[in-house]
Amino acid sequence: PIINDPTINEGSLAISKDGRSILFAKGNSGKATGTNEVNIYFSRFRNGNWLEPRPIAVNDPDSYDGTPALNVDGTTLFFSSNRPGGYGGADIYTAQLNRRGRWVDIRNMGPEVNTPANEMFPFVSEAGELYFASDGHPGLGKLDLFVAEKNSDGVQVVSNLGKNFNSNGDDF
Quick one: 84 exposed, middle or buried, by C-beta within 10 A (0-12, 13-18, 19+)? Predict the structure, then answer.
């Protein structure tokens, strides 16, 4: 199979609005042509088949890059990475889709969203709210679910989604 390989860990996928493109995390193949880490791959549906997945340019070869998500119009990629230069653990980053179809302008979402611990599993609602899991923001347990919304000054304000969504375990 082109996408689901029983010998490789794959998951956390983002589907384009038209359903013809996917981004997903894939890793731990251990092969000489692969990596020992998790990276984000892209595939497009053409002529009734999915094309061979290819790693995208946002991947840092020595880091974990996973849990991709797209904004509603598919022009901004959100993902989690433990690359150097972050705030610690895994941070949430963004990348912009340019006119040539490449992901560019990789940016860390900053200390309002990211902590010295882990921020992962981003999801962007149609209204533009960023939902994510974190074990660094104050919560009820291990990973909790949070929402980041911009206030009137354009600053991201993070709120815990509370007991209806979170427990003392990992919630993501």
Answer: exposed
